[in-house]
Amino acid sequence: MTSTTDLATTSTVEAAKAKAPSGQRVAVVTGAARGIGEAIAERLGRDGLHVIVADLPSMRAESDKTVATITAAGGTATAAEVDVADESSVEALVQTAVTAGGHLDVFIANAGIAQVEELLDYDAADFEKIVSVNLTGVFNSYRQAAKQMVAQGHGGKIIGAASIVAFRPFALLGPYSATKWAVRGLTQAAAMEWAEHGITVNAYGPGIVGTAMWDLIDEKLAAKNGQQQGEAISENARSIQLGRVSTPNDVAQLVSYLSGEDSDYVTGQTVLVDGGIQFS
Ligand code: NAD
Prior knowledge:
alpha/beta; seven-stranded parallel beta sheet; globular
């Protein structure tokens, strides 16, 4: 198992290799090795930010691929390793961003996990695990990002991953839904506390996005309901007004807006990007 110190050392070395040009805005994206986080990282790279592509050490090869895609498109990025459930690891990640670009301007707390299980069958250790990544991970990310931004004194953008289940939970995704509901609450409280520092705090609420996470949800729902693979996602997709499952890029476009100056007067919001499943 990789220790926190190892994670910090690897990150700092990588950061030194890919120093961002001064003046360029710097963004951290957690869970950026694949799925929605990958799309966000690539979009922010195209927007001209230096992107710290952060994910678990076990996802390093995928994180490196995300970095390669950003640089091939003319952007700049640094791969970093983090476990968001460990606050000292997140602290080291923020230092990686500062080493790479001199400052931190945007932090996207995207990392998350899902588990499909009935409440009565839910294992206590699994409950702890989902809370530690989806809620404690966002708490650690928000706090460490805000500490750095407050010290810098020129504001910033902090953005977390919520979900439609932050407004209307799904059965069989009870603890997952509870963590996302909590992210919505934490986002509102953080927005209130850090407004005086010029920091906006918002969250994005995707609906059904075709990523590895939904592959897993579909597989588990199908097994529980005696359906074929793909049936559960198709059934849920029927509730989407715009008539199609989301792509990660649909979410990245919203996060690009929340990361830029056009959203300077938006804070404390959990913005749904779900094709019209749930109205807030
Ligand atoms: P995904 O499983 O494809 O990717 C999640 C990434 O997070 C992975 O690369 C994983 O390695 C990383 N990760 C997991 N635990 C981590 C940890 N402790 N530290 C650092 N990184 C960690 O998921 P996705 O579909 O891209 O989802 C991204 C975010 O969006 C999640 O927070 C998810 O809950 C949320 N979301 C997804 C959907 C959807 O339909 N896919 C819907 C609503 C919300």
